[in-house]
Amino acid sequence: MTAVLFVSQLLNGLQLGVILFLVAAGLTLVFGVMDFINLAHGVQYMLGAYLVAVLVAWSGNFAVGLLLGLLGALVLGFVLEVLVFRHLTRRDHLEQVLGTFGVILIVTELVRIVFGSAPLAFPTPAALAGSVTLMPGLNYPVWRLVILGVGVGVAALLWYLVNRTRLGMLVRAGSTHPETVSALGVDIDRLFLVVFAFGAMLAGLAGAMAGPLVSVEPTMGDRILIVAFVVVVIGGIGSIKGAFVSALLVGLVDTLGRAFAADLLKALIGKSAAAAAGPALSSMLVYLLMAVVLSVRPSGLFGGRTA
């Protein structure tokens, strides 16, 4: 293992963590404030990637396509909340799971009908397609550094909104005492609508950032949704700070584990056994991390209450 390889994988882990944070931030807000299990959050991630990819190709300008795509993701969040999710918020969790799973099936099939099953082209913006030299022997893609910057910027913005604005105060209060907030004259349904739509836009932003790195196809949201739930559980339901710290931790554990687990096992159990056990262990590390955290802190790293 060389220093260049380690630093490269470390940055890749942070970049994955930032993508997970953008998905998990909206998920933890919806889960924490609304007590709503939204399995369709991965669909919103997928729709964001498709919207931005299509609008960038249509406009010929990445900035314009990104702005229009995020607005489209926000509008779709409003529409889905009003038409579907609002009718599930006061149902039990099983009905929420079944209802949002139905949304996954319907939206995924509609996207497949419109765009087909083949991956959609989403090239890296020309101005950000190069690489920069971070250290001798390490040329790192500019786009991945942009993702890191966007993630940190969004985290800072969310921290400010949640901790320094009236809306954030209502969100924090609604996550623990929704009946009290409603009794004080706050339209809790409108608050839920804003939180849900904003969460959908964050998921769309994550899809737009990940689009040039992964295959933009109808089931792309399924893969990230499970890991995003792990991030929410580890960080603590309803905690933006927890989602950020947990996402970076999960990204690093997953990336470094996949890169180096087999090599570390070679020193312990031999080359042939490590070759077989390494991939299996690396795929389990995130869930082992969750088990360890929950055994020590059942409410998560920054959770104020158990899930």
UniProtKB/TrEMBL annotation:
Cell membrane among keywords: yes
Keywords: Amino-acid transport, Cell membrane, Membrane, Transmembrane, Transmembrane helix, Transport
Record's subcellular location: Cell membrane
Domain of life: Bacteria
Segments traversing the membrane: 12-31, 43-60, 66-85, 97-122, 142-162, 191-214, 226-253, 274-296
Membrane topology designation: Multi-pass membrane protein
Gene Ontology BP term (one): amino acid transport
Keyword Hydrolase: no
GO molecular function, one term: transmembrane transporter activity
Any Pfam family the entry gives: BPD_transp_2
Coiled coil: none
CDD domains recorded: TM_PBP1_LivH_like
Cellular component annotations (GO), alphabetically ordered: plasma membrane
Protein family according to the UniProt entry: Belongs to the binding-protein-dependent transport system permease family. LivHM subfamily.
PANTHER family referenced in this protein's UniProt entry, alphabetically: ABC TRANSPORTER ATP-BINDING PROTEIN, BRANCHED-CHAIN AMINO ACID TRANSPORT SYSTEM PERMEASE PROTEIN LIVH
Protein name according to UniProt: Branched-chain amino acid ABC transporter permease
Organism: Rhodoplanes roseus
